[in-house]
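SEQUENCE-TO-STRUCTURE ENTRY
===========================
What this section holds: a protein sequence and its matching fold, both as plain text.
Question of interest: how does this chain fold, as expressed in backbone structure tokens?
***
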Amino acid sequence: MRRLRGGRPVTRWLLVATRIALGALFLWAAATKLPDMKGFAQDVANYRIVPALLVPCVAAAVVGVELLAGLALISGFMARPAAVVVAGLLVAFIAFVAQALLRGIDLRCGCFGGDEPASW
């Protein structure tokens, strides 16, 4: 295995860079939702999975988890559990988008605060 200066393997450097990039992506995703939480809550409601009463709580929880996981990945503190949480968020998002599209629900992604429609 090729090593960088100081005896650190290249794979370690690549892992850290990827962890920081993924953390920054999740921080950005959360930051774009914060200015319009009502709009994001509507996006969550449009998936038709969460009962209406719980939509605001779920929307806030998603943004909070994205913030905490992003910070954990960037800082390296609790990075492995944060990576598991991020993987769970991504799997859930894929499942929720797929079920909505299969049901013919016309909705926007809600990913980065934009108006882009969800599609395959």
